[in-house]
Amino acid sequence: MKETSRIKGKAIYQPAGAAEEYSLWACNLYKGCDHNCSYCYCKRGPMAHTLGGPHAVLKSTLGDEWSAVRIFRKELDKYRTRIIEDGGLFFSFSSDPFLPQTTDLSMTCIDYALSQGVPVYILTKAVNWLYKDVYIGSLYAYRHLLHIGFTLTGHDEMEPGAPSTQERIKAISRLHEMQFSVFASIEPVIDFNDSLSCIIDIMLFVRELRIGLLSPYSPRRYDWTQCDRFIDKVTELSLKHGVIVRWKKSINRFYKENRPDDMHSTIPDDRTTTQTAKPICQSVLSVSDKNPSVPLQSALMRPPPLLGGGLSPAGTAKRGTTLEGFYQTGELLYGIGTIGNSGHSMAVCGSYHGTGSKIPYRGA
Question: What is the pTM for the complete model shown?
């Protein structure tokens, strides 16, 4: 996107550079952050003098909080169609939207965006909001449009004002149990082994990983062999668990530019491309009494959306029960769809064999 064509509203704007890899549209209501992370690009980058404050404060261009809400609604209404077409709105790049002093205004704007059918992506390190019914209850009804992410580095000593890594992993697990769509930002990678440990701990709970290196980019910070092993293991885990991995340009660049000369012929370039999850089925399996076993691949119609969609809990369902779709991970097909009264359409775990009054299915 050309710089001159970017929208730059007071609240909503179109990011450039590395931020554009996260979202084509974003909302920044505050600047500064109480987490005081030593690696934060807002503190280290060219805008540190305006964005890198030790505490979150409302942007001066928004006036007070009432004015901020009016400005946000006006800008969202103006660009709503384009934001939806481009995948949604991201909160936020210049502060944590769920700090104690930022949550109320952030929630007001997030609620309005969701009520207008706009997908919302939230990136946070905060966890206290998750245990307040007034917040989580407000978001629950819109979880089909909502994608909540947590930043994980495995280095709590570099994030002195933030909840611990284990507290964030617990929050990820809790949101997953409530059928929210959860992603993790493994950025910046401080140490490949520590980042891998975080990933292993959350693979059962997330739909997507976004992985990038420290900013500004410097190849001297990392070892290529460790990076190579890290990519291998993350790719293996992502394919096993059906998790989308988005490798950011920084790690792609490091991998390609620092690869040893004698490795060029043995490591294909697509090692650094995005690994996608197994597809989500857009229709139910048709299973006839004469041919009760249907190959799983026949039900896989197209790749999943970026994130989203809840899955049904494990158990059994009587004929006539409505579930929500199909999702395959590893060798299992997870049931979402309609179980017809005739038994010809059903949700299954694996291929369905035979007939019965109840059909086995399993959630994620």
Answer: 0.72
